[in-house]
Amino acid sequence: MIVALYRFLFTRLLFLLFLFSLCRLLFYLFYSPEFESCTTSQIAYAFLLGLRFDLSILLGANVVFFLPLAIGRFFAIPKWVFTINKLLFVLVNSILVSLNLLDLEYFAFTGKRTGIEILGIKDDIGNQANQLFLHYWHIALLGFVLFLWILLRTLRLTYKPVVSKRPVLYFAIGYALFIGLAVLGIRSGFQLKPLRPNIAFSIQPSKLGNVVLNTPFNIFMTIGIEPIEPVHYFKNESEVSDILSEWNRQGKSTFPTHTTKQNVVIIILESFASEYTGIANAGKGYTPFLDSLASTNLYFQNHFANGRVSMEAVPSILASIPGLMREPYITSLYQTNALQGLGTQLLKSGYHTSFFHAAKNGSMGFDAFTKNADFTHYYGLNEYKGSQEDFDGNWGIYDEPYLQYFKEHLNTFPQPFASCVFTISSHQPYSLPEKYAGKFPEGDLDIHKTIGYVDYSLRKFFEAAKKETWYTNTLFVITADHTQMHSNPKYKNIRGDYNVPLIFFHPSEKLTADTSLVASQIDIMPSILDYLQIINPEPALIGQSVFGKQPSHDYAVNFSDNNYRVFLKDYYIEGTLETEFLIKKYTHEIIRPANEKERKLIQAIIQYYNNGMIENTYYTWGKTKGSI
Questions:
Q1: Are strands 556-560 and 519-520 parallel, antiparallel or unpaired?
Q2: Helix pair angle (2-30, 137-155), 10° resolution
Q3: What is each CA distance from 281 to 273, 284, 294, 426, 487, in whole angstroms?
Q4: Which of 282, 414, 504, 607 is 20 to 30 A from residue 215's alpha carbon, by CA?
Q5: Do 277 and 501 contact (CB within 8 A), yes or no?
Q6: What domains lie within the chain, and their CATH numbers?
Q7: What contacts 24+ positions apart, CB below 8 Å, involve 377-383?
């Protein structure tokens, strides 16, 4: 009967492993263009390594349910216990498989396997349940089919009274052995620390780590765990400060003397990659208005997002906090840290501050964060009083009416004001007002027609804003939260994954800066303060004013797949906490190991960010005693 017991447990696990491998295959097929440069042997190894992660989460979730099923082969347990156990077995494993299907679509938006941070947008998912089901019905159908398969396979198990006459000790030894093997399987070996998600990215190339991982494992391993660890590359804070100060060395900015305080308007465009613009692609794009604005003002062609999701963009832009950890700052354990946002400094200088988001109030946690960043007035869908026709039926208000609504509110604010608006129309499901059906080029991707609509909405906004008295005294900053899907081969690389527009525009002044230099979202806050000639007494140590950037002192930072990256002009530095830092081309080829100067830069950034977050000294670095 011990043999029968193990055969019983083995067949159950084998079936579940098959389903997880099937999900992995589907994930690979959905995103095969992402891995087209990988060899067959590399892909095969990724599938093989993935079994470790599958076995770990399946044993962890099922070992309790195996106990009554197994004991039923030796002892007469009540039939109702047997039945309830089977139903729980079906429920738990159906949830695991369904979670594994989640990234068949969601990976396209984040570029990484989903973790517990998904709970940060649980309200948005609930609010959008109808349209999400409508557009991703095939995923729901696949999940239902797999649920039926698990159900039917489990219902086949019949209640059997005791058939074994072996002594209890015989069973106890066998089951103790099984428990020991199960614990070993959950830990996935005898190593000091249990299996963790970052081990998946030890594979080469590291991007295959997303094939290795399964979503349930990733979610479970991010529950209640601090996503960042303190590091000690340098002995004390001053060494870190010296390195970052040297890299952040600025030239002197020169601006005209303003007799009137200047307003600030920041426009964040949803999923608006540089790939979609004409200015970045020899005129071949979907943004004629934005192209015209960029061609006569400051347009930064080497500008990068500091993250891959919206919740990473807003802290980067408004507080110089890049997304250098697995979980967005907004939902992380550090969200209550002392925050020195853009609004903090502007309020001290007498500015009226506000943040507008065309989606439902509370979406993405922007309401709470922007108020912490001292944007004291928040306007979401609840405050919008326009026509019902302005609602896109999914997320919120179409861009054209919402930007007009935004403009009307700016008319009512006391000057000087600083206001930020976050648009939504270029968000999935890429819907348009009925009156614009067929007006904008379809392009190669679903998003392209909505990019044209957003561009048109911007044109209408600026045409209306020109008529207002505040317009000539306003600095406009236009950027995007993150990139989206690629169709242009030029952007199918790590550079294209983060390249978003950045435009500085003032109707009455000719702004000057070296727009060929590398810039990123964390540069926006210091750039605005520099332009307004407002001194920030507690600035972040990363992020520079674009008006004072110097060649060979320009960089951008980001993090994904457990890899830290520093983007430089012609190449980037990449590595993990456990591996050496390498210099790579933007087409991913390794050039060489990082030299001492390059290595110290990325190590200083990591130590500053990680330890600054953990110790809540991100804006007061070097002002506390002691080493880190």
A1: unpaired
A2: 170
A3: 12, 5, 13, 19, 13
A4: 607
A5: yes
A6: 2-221 (no CATH), 254-551 (3.40.720.10)
A7: 377/352, 377/353, 378/354, 379/354, 379/355, 379/409, 380/356
- In which residue are the tokens 């832009």 written? 317
Name the burial class of residue 193, with classes exposed (0-12), middle (13-18) and buried (19+) by CB atoms within 10 angstroms of its CB: exposed
b (16+ CB within 10 A) / e for 482-503: bbbbbebeebbebbbbbbbbbb
Structure tokens at 533: 């000639």
Helices assigned H by DSSP within 268-419: 288-295, 310-319, 342-348, 366-372, 399-412
Find all residues with CB under 8 Å of 179, minimum gap 6, and list them. 63
CA nearest to 163, candidates 225, 72, 236, 98:
72
Q: Could you identify the residue written with the tokens 């007035």?
A: 377
Alpha carbon distance 616, 337 (integer Å): 6
- Residue 82 gets which letter from DSSP? H
The Cα–Cα gap between 228 and 389 comes to: 45
| CA gap 296, 84 in Å, rounded | 70
- Compute φ and ψ for 295, nearest 5 degrees: -70, -20
If residue 173 lies in a helix (H) or strand (E), which one and from where to where?
helix 168-187
Walk across the sheet containing 377-379 and list its strands.
Answer: 298-299, 502-505, 474-480, 263-269, 417-422, 352-357, 377-379
- Strands of 125-246 (E only): list them: none
Determine the 3-state secondary structure of 346 from DSSP: helix
pLDDT tens digits along 103-112: 888 777 666 7
Amino acid at position 396, single letter:
G
CA 579 to chain centre: 23
Give the type of residue at 28. Answer: Y
Helix (H) or strand (E) holding 21, with range, is: helix 2-30
Please say if the pLDDT value at position 283 is more than 50.
yes
Rounded distance, CA 217 to CA 70, Å? 25
The Cα–Cα gap between 398 and 457 comes to 9
Mention every residue, 6+ apart, whose C-beta is less than 8 A from residue 503: 290, 293, 294, 297, 298, 299, 300, 476, 477, 478, 479
- pLDDT the model gives residue 159: 62
Q: What is the DSSP letter of 327?
A: S
Task: Tell me what the mean pLDDT of segment 166-175 comes to.
Answer: 66
If you count them, how many residues does the chain have?
A: 628
Residue with the two structure tokens 């949830």: 95
Closest CA to 76 of 2, 163, 161: 161
513 vs 547: CA distance, rounded Å: 5
Asked if the peptide bond before residue 328 counts as cis, ω within 30 degrees of 0, the response is no
DSSP state of 415: S
Q: Identity (one letter) of the amino acid at 97?
A: V
DSSP structural state of residue 430: -
Alpha-carbon dihedral sign for residues 73, 78, 83, 88: negative
Give the mean model confidence (pLDDT) for residues 534-557: 95
Cα 235 to chain center, whole Å? 31
The pLDDT of residue 80 is 77
Q: 3-class secondary structure for 351-365? A: CEEEEEECECCCHHH
Q: How sure is the predictor about 1, in pLDDT bands with cuts at 50, 70 and 90?
A: very low
Residue 195 confidence class, pLDDT cut points 50, 70, 90: confident
Q: Are 586 and 494 in contact (CB under 8 A)?
A: yes
Cis check: omega of the bond before 197, within 30 degrees of 0: no
Residue recorded with tokens 């400060």 = 241
